[in-house]
Structure prediction request, 238 residues.
Amino acid sequence: GGFGLAACFAFTGLAAVPFMLILMTLTIVRPAPAHGTGDESPFRSLIEGYKYIWRNPAIRGLLSVDIVPIALGMSYATMAPAIAKDVLHLPDGGLGWLLGAAGVGALTGTLLVAVLHGIRHRGRIVVLSIAAFGIVLIVFGLSGSVWLSFPAIAALGLVFAGYSTLNDTLVQTNIDEGYRGRVVAVQTMLWGLTPIGGLLAGYLASRFNVQWAVAINGMLVLAYVPYLWFRTPVRTIP
Prediction:
């Protein structure tokens, strides 16, 4: 009764067209001059980016948000098929509804950040949002109820999209113009660590079960919050 797998891929491809049109407008942006000599190698340029990040504790703290919470927190998406089938016993198409709820939450979180763009204490909000993300991740992992799991995964999408969007904004607004490209390159590389959380979740699922695998990752995210609050200057960013 559906449109089929090919139609899903076709819709995904068409959805990328507006994004491509937006990227085309970047040709009118004049890049800022980069620090360093113009003939340095890409490897040397990347090393300079790492040195700049290390010299700036606020940037280090913000980029650490792209490692720990994202790598561990995204395990809920990796484990979602098993949760939908073995825990919630959803019918065919139930996984789509489950991930769709996360998508609705993510869209809501992104829109909230856009609406509240002038909010103060954004660094503190990032840290507290990560704490909320860890708590909701534990709730979602241990839940065996459809009525609790759907709101929980929607809340996960909302909090994740909200704090990651706000965190990326803080990274962009706290970088020196000449290092922007290199820092963003490092930040993009860090997103490649996301599958590590899936590997850990898979190992924990084999040792315990799927629910505890997600919940333990939530506990690890929550354990990271005190370090972010007390050992980095992220919470002091206005």
In short: Residues 30 and 177 are 12 Å apart (CA to CA). The mean pLDDT is 87.
